[in-house]
Amino acid sequence: MKSPEAGRIRQALRSATSGDHQRVDDLFAGYALDSATDYRAFLTAHARAVAALEPAARPDAPRLSLLEQDMAALDAAMPESLPVPSVPTPAFRWGLLYALEGSRLGGAMLGGAMLARRVGADLPTAYLSAVHGKGEWIAFQHALDAAAAEGGEGWLDDAVQGAQTAFALFAAAAEAQRMTAHG
Q1: Range of the domain at 32
Q2: Are 103 and 57 in contact (CB under 8 A)?
Q3: Alpha carbon distance 106, 128 (integer Å)
Q4: For 57-110, what is each residue's pLDDT tens digit?
Q5: 4 vs 8, 14, 69, CA distance in Å?
Q6: Residue 138, Cα to own-chain centre: how many angstroms?
Q7: Beta-carbon neighbour count of residue 98 at 10 Å?
Q8: What DSSP character marks residue 110?
Q9: Are 177 and 44 in contact (CB under 8 A)?
Q10: Helices H, strands E: what count in the chain?
Q11: Would you say 57 and 96 are in contact if contact means Cβ atoms under 8 Å apart?
Q12: Quick one: which of 45, 86, 91, 101 could link to 159 by a disulfide (CB 3.0–4.6 Å)?
């Protein structure tokens, strides 16, 4: 059921973090996902961030095991996780969750193209194929709006900080992977 207000908090988070989100998209845009080497590097960077974020955000549909499955199929070891962020408030956790759940949209949309479709036919796609089921994204937005309504003053600021932290972890993971690949 849609309402005119549904997604209001998602829109506010999206607006407040658009620069952070664009930076992450830019850092991951250079990977040729049809190349086993590039795809392995892409998944390795994601694994570093997701392994840090999922314990803090506690999503209903964790995807770390799917990353592990894809990495194993590529004969790649799981990398060391980035440090798990502390979660000072429930709103901060919702911000982390917003970034994680948003990354599931369309198999992690990047530059308008569904990433899972860019992966080579002989490469595993369990992680990128774990998109929202029918109605799940709308339900998440309703839950986000409800949490904000109950959260009171300062809730949105804390949620923005959580989302920015999540984007910063993805950016740090991408930069660490680039440093590993290029010395």
Answers
A1: 8-182
A2: no
A3: 8
A4: 999 999 999 999 999 999 999 999 999 999 999 999 999 999 999 888 745 444
A5: 9, 17, 40
A6: 17
A7: 24
A8: B
A9: yes
A10: 8, 0
A11: yes
A12: 91
Mention every residue, 6+ apart, whose C-beta is less than 8 A from residue 111: 25, 29
Give a yes or no: residue 3 inside a domain.
no
Give the pLDDT confidence score for residue 117 in this predicted structure. 85
| Assigned token pair, 77 | 């070891």
- Asked if residue 4 lies in contact with residue 10, where contact means CB atoms within 8 angstroms, the answer is no
CB burial string 154-167: b at 16+ within 10 A, e below: ebbebbbbbbbbbb
User: Token match 């549904």: residue?
Assistant: 6
Tens of pLDDT, residue by residue over 29-64, are 889 999 999 999 999 999 999 999 999 999 999 999
pTM over 0.85: yes
**CATH assignment of the domain containing 47:** 1.20.910.10
Number of structural domains, the chain? Answer: 1
The torsion of the CA quartet 60, 145, 147, 49, rounded to 10 degrees, works out to 40
Burial classification of residue 25, based on how many CB atoms lie within 10 Å of its CB (0-12 exposed, 13-18 middle, 19 or more buried)? middle
pLDDT cut 90: percent of the chain above it:
76
Give the pair of three-digit tokens for residue 132: 């929202």
